[in-house]
Amino acid sequence: MSLINTVNGPLSADDLGFTLMHEHVMISASGLYDHYPDLLGPDPEDRAIASLKLAKAEGIDTILDATTFDLGRKPELLQRVSRASGVNIINTTGWWLDVPRFLIGVSADQMAKEFIRDVEEGFRGTDIKAGILKCAADYENVTPPLEVMARAVARAHVHTGLPIMVHSYPTGQVARRQIEIFREEGVDLTRVKIDHSNDTTDMEYLQWILDQGCYLGLDRYPGRLVSPKMRTSTLKALIDAGYAERLCPSHDCICISVVKQNADGSMPEQHEYQRHNPLQYLYISREVIPMLKTLGVTDKTISTLFVDNPRRFLAGR
After folding, report:
1. How far is Cα 149 from Cα 248, in angstroms, rounded to an integer?
2. How far is it, in rounded angstroms, from Cα 82 to Cα 268?
3. Phi then psi for 31, rounded to 5 degrees?
């Protein structure tokens, strides 16, 4: 039996159920929740619990929270929200894009040791352990500081066996360099998921990633750069091309974030990400899955996307 680290302890991979593989309960900055909580709007924890209770009621059993330290990770918050809502939450270690100047020059081996501790001992001050690793690069490609983090995550993967989720920039085909780094570090590419891949409709590029053995995170719904319809059409094309067993659709939803004052000084009721996706964790259930069925995708394939693939990817089987 394969056990997955969740914020409430180990969970059998067979019990993950319907899983969304790239979401966020909160995005902010390291320490902001504790020191400037009013920036997150009223009752942020209660809002997150309410949102995930709705998700649970509509059949979502597990989410993978992709919030790293530099994105404001708060493991204790995730634990409380998970317990109150009934949704399993898997949290990540690694690094996103914000490498501060005081970390410039820190080695990949140093960072790998820190990430390994998050997996094996728990996030500092807690017994909550990371269930996945994460690294990132964006439109600037893999900058030297982000290469350090990518190699650190790769080395932590080799040590722990945990899979890797990768923030990437498909418009610039950045995954080509990220995958090259993983090869150099001895990463098992079948344990790598290249995320934000439905920000492009470039089938040649997406199939190239899949042909390396990686999974695809098609996790920007409803998204901005590509319409929801074209995202789903690309997903259907990949299914038809025979890749259904390595596709992981999700939202990249953000439930709690900074609420920014309007130009006139008034305060909006919702942060900008929620205004863009008012359905939050339910957009796929209510919009994408019905469209897939209209396009001829079977219930069995939908179960593959949201139950079987997350289980196989996270468990390595």
Report:
1. 24
2. 27
3. 85, -10
Please report, for the chain, the start and end positions of each structural domain, with discontinuous segments joined by +: 3-315
Cis, peptide link before residue 222, omega less than 30° from 0: yes
End-to-end CA distance of the chain: 10
pLDDT of residue 87: 98
Q: Please, where are the H alpha helices in the chain?
A: 32-35, 44-57, 75-85, 108-120, 144-160, 175-184, 203-211, 228-238, 272-276, 283, 289-294, 299-303, 309-315
Cα gap 163→133, rounded to integer Å? 6
pLDDT digits (tens, 9 = 90+) for 42-94: 999 999 999 999 999 999 999 999 999 999 999 999 999 999 999 999 999 99
30: confidence class by pLDDT, cuts 50, 70, 90: very high
Q: Specify the fold of 3-315.
A: TIM Barrel (3.20.20)
Q: Is the pLDDT of residue 269 over 90?
A: no
Positive or negative CA dihedral for 30, 97, 85, 83? negative
Q: What stretch of H or E contains 22?
A: strand 19-26
CB 143 within 8 A of CB 180: no
Record the pTM: 0.97
